[in-house]
Amino acid sequence: MHEIGMCEGLVELIQRQAGSRRVASARIRVGARHAVVGDAFDQAFSLAAAGTIVQDAVVDLVITPMTVDCRTCGGQGESADPLTACPHCGDDTVDLSGGDELILESLTFDEEAAGVSRHPR
């Protein structure tokens, strides 16, 4: 389950970005070449974040597809499956590009946990 190593690195990055602020949510973009399984990622993130300022964060995981270029028919398309065939002719003689990113897109901080009230007193 390679998601554990990925999530440990992401939690470290998020903690550096957050400083002492508690993290309410994070949006993470992962390319399809990483072959991340959503449920495995969620479980790995929970394990990696346990006991940190990230532990209660809601994670929005966005999978970015790869571009598929067919050497046989010249067709082009997108796929989230690294073992894909041409979406036009079905041939498996394809070149894949993109889908290799791992990006921490955004963080939302829990203002109340940081001592800032969201409601005026």
TrEMBL record:
Protein name stated in the entry: Hydrogenase maturation factor HypA
Stated role: Involved in the maturation of [NiFe] hydrogenases. Required for nickel insertion into the metal center of the hydrogenase.
Zinc listed as a keyword: yes
Keywords: Metal-binding, Nickel, Zinc
Record has Mitochondrion as a keyword: no
One Pfam family linked to the record: HypA
Residues engaged in binding Zn(2+): 70, 73, 86, 89
InterPro entries: HSP_DnaJ_Cys-rich_dom_sf, Hydgase_Ni_incorp_HypA/HybF_CS, HypA/HybF
Family: Belongs to the HypA/HybF family.
Binding site for Ni(2+): 2
Residue ranges the record marks as coiled coil: none
